[in-house]
Amino acid sequence: RERLESKKISKTNAVTSIMDHELPADDVYIGPSDYVPWLTDRKWAHIRVEGQAFGDVPLNLELKLEVWDSPNSAGIVIDAVRCCKLALNHGIAGQLDGPSSYLMKSPMNQRPDHLAREATETFIADHSRSADAAERARDAAADAAQNKSAVADA
């Protein structure tokens, strides 16, 4: 039960943090369910949005999203690992603010997606190899492979 409460808080914060205005707690509900064995690795999300159209006419939208959970998160995990490797290569430790705010559901510094993406792209640009460094790395790898081949032939 404690984990479900924690997930409810993190999911609610992830959604409400990107809103331009504060939503009263009674106007938003985002929550997980218990584990449902027959869903296996699938996740279902039921989304309902209520509002008003022209003339304050009620407008409601309902949507069901179904995804396979494991492959759905693979891209995010790969991007996070790549950012961590860039940090390691540059001796950076601790929280990676930009990538964390863009890739994680409950980062220390929650920000709108467009700002988080911009911060992530800046982090990557600042810590990626220059074209010269990349070429030197490829040359070194080719030399190492050639030397390994020469040793194996001897």
UniProtKB/TrEMBL annotation:
Its EC number is 5.5.1.4. It is an enzyme of class 5 (isomerase). The keyword Isomerase applies. Residues 126-141 have a biased composition (Basic and acidic residues). One of its GO terms (biological process) is inositol biosynthetic process. Residues 142-154 have a biased composition (Low complexity). InterPro entries: MIPS (IPR052199), Myo-inos-1-P_Synthase_GAPDH (IPR013021), NAD(P)-bd_dom_sf (IPR036291). Residues 126-154 are annotated as: Disordered. GO terms for molecular function: inositol-3-phosphate synthase activity. Transmembrane segments: none annotated. Residues 2-70 form the Myo-inositol-1-phosphate synthase GAPDH-like domain. Keywords: Isomerase. This is Inositol-1-phosphate synthase. It comes from uncultured Solirubrobacteraceae bacterium.
